[in-house]
Amino acid sequence: MSRSKRARSAPKGAVSSPPRPVDDFPPKYKKLINRFYEPLILLRVLGQTRGGHSTVQEHDTRSLQCTRRRFLACLAYVASNAKRKKISEFLAKLLERLRVIATSTADGDGEDEIATKCIDFATPRIKKEVGLLRSRIAQYHKRSAARATEQDMMLLGWLGYFQNPEALVSICQFAYDERRSTWMKELEQRSRSPRYKSSDDASHVMFNYIRHYVGRLADHIRKPKHLIQHCQQLIFLFDNWTVKGVEAMQATPRPEHSPQTSLPNILKRMLPKDDPKLPEYEGALTVMDRGHHISDGLREYWSDPTFQPKVHAEIQILEQFYNNGLAFEDNDPYIACSKPACFCCHLYFRHHPLKCVEADSHQKVYHNWGPPMINTKDEKEFMRQRDILNEMVKDIRNDALNQIIQRRGSLAWHADSVTGITESVLAEREQADELDSVDGSAPSYNPDSDELFDMPEIDSEAVSFCSDADDPESDSDGGVALDITELSVSQ
Ligand SMILES: [Zn+2]
């Protein structure tokens, strides 16, 4: 939610014309972009996941700020569930209805109605989630066919509900009502990773997926419930609001590849001039390269024809606030997003002059991430972006150098881990990424929390050398896509 505070010049990053060829840019800008992507792509090759999920903040019912943030996050979630062209109309109607409900005195008024509206809006997505769940249940059926225990039979009987031709609302409601059931606990038990190294085809992975998809379905009831719960407390927000689309931002062009973009040269540029530790890093990297084909990985990324940087949604909204001098409701610089931020968005928020609340992050690196394109003739604009990217590069570089010096992650590149992943698993993982609003790594699942399920780690490094799928329906490039318009709700 924002209030217009001061006018600045028009958004400089908001450009809708086709990408300009990289040769069009001044040398210093090309250099900035090339130097930014070198360590980023190296980090991607070294391993996509850079850490656990940043913790989702516990909801404190006494805090108005906390309530407002959760309300906005739920709004972003339910609005992100369908065709972007229809989001504006859906959101406006939803807010109007919530305004009416907020003035009602009866507790629980409108819960079913709002959940049904949100589920109707999200029908294509929910159908996908149900389909993925059913395919995992079918896998479980197949595996246990010859040796099903009595417990298996009972668990399959419970899962059978999700295979009935029920209305989507009933399926989601069942998932929500059963969130604390013994069968969800059973799935949690069965989805725990064994102490020994197992394949990605192991049973705990299958159970983790089943549990994850049931959780996704429950979310379609949980999030509308939060909207209803909080709208009365936030009734003052409904006095005067508008829903606006923002013009899609174009990202910087992809970096250039040249003979200088080699692994030894990238390493040298990542270290201070004449750094005495260079030979030590070179030695470690040579060993890693020999075992894990890091140079090949770099080449594959640079030659990937689908490598086209995109500006993720949260960055576009951040820039929208900055460029237009918008003020945040109650001076709380929080930008809600329907899913956790990627590694780069997280860093961009951290180093952006607006100093917004750092978004929860899944800490994954996507090489297709791109900063907004700027007017490179505007020196002030150039320096602002340069400063942000330079600070990001320091973090990216440190992360990569730490991994190199410790030679961490080498097991992830073992050939066996790659062969352990079937194409269908990878395809499903891509869909799961798209379907995740939060693929959290909560050690224990609290059914009333916004903290969601732990997704099985399907050796992300095994796909390091593949290009990210370019499916427009997929978020496999990591962010919430915002290639047409996105919305900000302003008051
Ligand atoms: Zn992102």
TrEMBL record:
Q: Name one Pfam family in it.
A: OTT_1508_deam
Q: Which InterPro entries match?
A: OTT_1508_deam-like
Q: What is this protein called?
A: Uncharacterized protein
List compositional bias (Acidic residues) regions by residue number.
448-460
Region of interest: Disordered: 1-23, 432-491
Which species does this protein come from? Rhizodiscina lignyota
